[in-house]
């Protein structure tokens, strides 16, 4: 899929087709994140750094379930 860079106000931007927005579950005002990969760039509808932190937290809570239960009391 080819997208063209166009002038939007005083900035440059791209217009994404509706099917791309639907697949990424994006709506007006949402943020997207761009990460560099060995093959180029990747667009994500979430912050990959935050997702990694949440996965680490989930793993820690699973390992330390007894401590988490005590803190919940």
UniProtKB/TrEMBL annotation:
This is SpoVT / AbrB like domain protein. NCBIfam families: doc_partner. Residues 6-51 form the SpoVT-AbrB domain. InterPro entries: Doc_partner, SpoVT-AbrB_dom, SpoVT-AbrB_sf. Pfam families: MazE_antitoxin. One of its GO terms (molecular function) is DNA binding.
